[in-house]
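Annex B. Sample input.
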Amino acid sequence: IFEGGRMRSSLRTARLLKEQALAGHQAVLADMAADVRVGFYNVLLGEQEITVSLASVELLENELADSQRRFNAGTVPRFNVLRAEVELANARPRVSRARNSYRIAKNVIVNLLGYSVPQDVWEDIPLKLAGTLDAPKFDIAVPEAVRLALERRPELVALRHAEALQREGVTVARAGYYPRLEGFAGY
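Annex B, continued. Sample output.
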């Protein structure tokens, strides 16, 4: 059977559908890898936020003690002591928020990785990650990075295949206007 290019177009369509599905699969994998990477750095960031907020509370406690000593010595007004107390009271909730965000970040990464958490672990997942928040240095110019991103992003590859599939649909539709040649054999 010859139908004005319909058979070849159908073969190209099948190939494009396969490549589009593969690109979609790669896009899902890339998104998952990005989510895990972001989750990993959120855990590291949460850990550092706890450290910073605890150091801030310690500094404010020292400042309050210093203000209290100065007030008792009569060198500063009561206002300085009150200001230090308020700052310390405002800093303590930040420690709780940092601990909560750290706990949530650990839960998120455990879920992303698909780990099964034991039922007896209710509050804090015993997870310690090794890593730093230092950003790696990339020696690539912005135009080159944009070119590579446009070339390699699986979502864009899938869209290019979708565009090619639309062109093949036009080819199949045009094939209906051409003559058909059919042959039968038997004995």
